[in-house]
Amino acid sequence: MVNHTVSNNPHIKNDVVLIVDDFQNMRSTLRQMLLSLEYHDITPVATGEEALIKLRNRHYDIVLCDYNLGDGIDGQQVLDQARTEGTVDLSTVFIMVTAENTNEMVMGALESTPDAYLSK
Questions:
Q1: Which residue of 5, 41, 96, 119 lies most exposed, with the fewest beta carbons within 10 A?
Q2: What's the rounded Cα separation, in Å, for the pair 89 and 26?
Q3: Is residue 17 part of a domain?
């Protein structure tokens, strides 16, 4: 019997993923979806401030960030600050995820130039 590990299985995705959402249920749902797609290095956080700390300490290949993060900074501010600090570079895929669908919010998020915009 062959023992496949994350590092040598060609079907396992080795990208490092950061999930930023203030709702635990959404973080869990996104994590389960990613696990089903064979992503295994997933870090969930609840606030924009936590996200910035994680981004300063590790490179993430993919960031799924909610726009509205409750109290504190929002997803657009996370993206702006991370780009200013250089912790999110051109190799990082930053996806803004939100239930908001107002034109102002969508255009505001697009001004920050996320790589993609995903509506919940």
A1: 5
A2: 25
A3: no
Q: How far apart are CA 53 and CA 82, in angstroms?
A: 10
Domain assignment of residue 4, yes or no: no
Dist. CA 90–CA 101, nearest whole Å: 26
Q: 63-112, pLDDT tens digit by residue?
A: 999 999 999 999 999 999 999 999 998 899 999 988 766 666 655 555 56
pTM for this prediction: 0.83
- Type of residue found at 88: V
- Show the CA angle centred on residue 100, arms to residues 49 and 97, nearest 5°: 55
* Distance in angstroms (rounded) separating the CA atoms of residues 113 and 117: 9
Q: At what angle do helices 75-85 and 103-111 cross, to 10 degrees?
A: 10
83-to-36, 93, 98, 99, 119 alpha-carbon distances in Å:
30, 12, 20, 24, 22
The pLDDT tens digits for 14-55 are 999 999 999 999 999 999 999 999 999 999 999 999 999 999
Across the chain, where does the E strand assignment appear? 13-20, 39-45, 62-66, 93-98, 116-119
